[in-house]
Specification:
The chain is of the alpha/beta class. It folds into two domains: about 170 residues, P-loop containing nucleotide triphosphate hydrolases (Rossmann fold), CATH 3.40.50.300; about 70 residues, 2-Layer Sandwich (Alpha-Beta Plaits). About 35% of the residues lie in helices and about 30% in strands. The chain has ten helices and 14 strands. It has a six-stranded mixed β-sheet, sandwiched between helices. A hairpin with a 5-residue loop joins strand 12 and strand 13. Helix 2 packs across helix 3, helix 2 runs parallel beside helix 4 and helix 8 packs antiparallel against helix 9. It is elongated and about 75 Å long. The relative contact order is 0.13.
Length: about 300
């Protein structure tokens, strides 16, 4: 898959603090890419380096396979975590002003803004002042002006902060639609549920280092730990004895329908197919499923050094 952005061995130091330490990240074209990490890990610094707001002390940023240049910034839409609307201006006036800065004509900007305002249900706020907006409403305005010029690369820093579940879902749907229309999306977030819902790839940054990168589905599966659940009708004790050489029984319980559910850890050197066959021979097997850890579990284990 072609890369739209590649950060190579990027290091950035501030007085008494190293924000990024030899970080390499590859952002594939046409993907939703999550930058994860605890507060102060270096995510926002990396975003600012990509946007050429901050210059790295060493390393480089490649844009479509070549060294990034200043004019490439105009092909990026960036919504920072710190919202920057002018509180005394009217909403429509400000949105139009920011759209013109993106290079759109007044006519084109007005046409696109009207469509977005209707889509987000905020057309009645066009002539109201920014200071009258709620935090979530202001974020909708910033989202609109970020995507209005239809850049190929979109970067959002904590885009879901301050949104209620309904509006957060609206934003997720728009991010996926933008990806499906050819945009690449990078976003920084602490919301692990959002990562599982919309991210194709992630990088986890901790203490200024890239400690984990890859496709979300592959990362979750590779850290599964060989733990499974089996649901069956039969003698649970006899089954536990049958599985003892190759499985550790972690939990076992019966339900009111006469079925038992067993959580078990299959030894790394054991054949999972043989375990399934043994359960099927010993009991009436109804289901056998691998337990895949959530991104939240992986995040906590990685940051705590127990991954």
């Amino acid at each position: 898959m072609a890369e739209i952005i590649r950060a190579e061995h990027v290091t950035k130091r501030f007085t008494g603090h190293t924000a990024l330490d030899d970080v390499t990240v590859s952002i594939p074209e046409g993907a939703v890419y999550g930058l994860l990490g605890p507060n102060g890990a270096g995510k926002t610094t990396l975003i600012r380096v990509i946007n050429r707001i901050t210059v790295p002390d060493s390393g480089k940023i490649l844009f479509n396979g070549r060294p990034m240049e200043q004019q490439d910034v105009y092909r990026i839409g960036y919504m920072p975590e710190e919202r920057g609307l002018y509180r005394k201006m009217k909403v429509g006036e400000q949105a139009l002003f920011l759209a013109r800065l993106k290079g759109l004509s007044r006519h084109e900007a007005l046409t696109r803004l009207k469509k977005w305002f209707v889509k987000f249900g905020i057309e009645d706020w066009w002539n109201k002042k920014v200071e009258d907006l709620s935090k979530g409403m202001a974020q909708k305005i910033q989202f609109i002006v970020t995507v209005l010029h239809e850049p190929k690369l979109l970067i959002f820093d904590e885009p879901f902060s301050g949104f209620d579940p309904i509006n957060a879902n609206l934003l997720k749907e728009e991010i996926l639609r933008l990806r499906d229309n050819g945009a690449t999306v990078i976003f920084s977030t602490h919301n692990m549920a959002s990562v599982e819902e919309i991210c194709d790839h992630i990088t986890l940054i901790n203490k200024s280092h890239n400690i984990l990168s890859g496709r979300v589905d592959e990362i979750r599966r590779s850290h599964g730990g060989n733990i499974f659940t089996a649901r069956f009708r039969g003698d649970a004790d006899a089954l536990a004895q049958r599985l003892a050489p190759s499985c550790e029984i972690m939990e076992s319980e019966n339900d009111l329908t006469g079925f038992s559910t067993m959580k078990l850890h299959v030894a790394d050197n054991a054949d999972v197919r043989s375990v399934i066959a043994a359960i099927n021979e010993e009991t009436e097997l109804r289901s056998f499923n691998e337990i895949i850890p959530s991104m939240n579990d992986i995040f906590i284990r990685a940051v705590n050094g127990t991954l």
